[in-house]
Write the structure tokens for this entry.
Amino acid sequence: MRTPPRNVLPFGRPPRRRWTRGEDYGASKRGSGLGFAAIVAAVFLSVFTAVFLWGGPPAAAPFPIPTDRESARFGTCIGPVRINCVVDGDTFWYRGEKIRIADINTPEVSEPSCAREAELGHKATRRLRELLNQGPFALEPIDRDHDQYGRSLRVVTRGGESLGDTLVSEGLAEEWKGYRGEWC
């Protein structure tokens, strides 16, 4: 039987090279790519640039941080089961919770004092339903959590603007003064 030459293993594969003392093993492995030290230096320079030269994040973001996280499809409340629906221009149910819009007062629809109040009350109810269905909104608490009827008191906003202010500007509500106003 014939013996293969010393520098070739069976199947034509050359033997593993043995390194001698003093040789730089990493030099043959690194080739022309970046070494570990170069990568660490690049990361350090990136962090240094971001923190010290850029100055970190701005004190106030140049755009509003989205807080409008509430959203549902609202209808008009009918019947005893109320999940997401509008009662009148300043009261609605959201996720089974009855909410009174704290910064406004609107005309009554259940027991109006005159025909004008009934008409304005129905317009305010329709408009509130439209506003709530236009997109995400936020429910902001006030100094009291509930009113005397157990309704949650909240200011409803979208993009930081009160939806109640929209109803006021359209003549369908008045700013809350601590008591109900007259519509007749």
Notes: The CA atoms of residues 100 and 149 lie 10 Å apart.
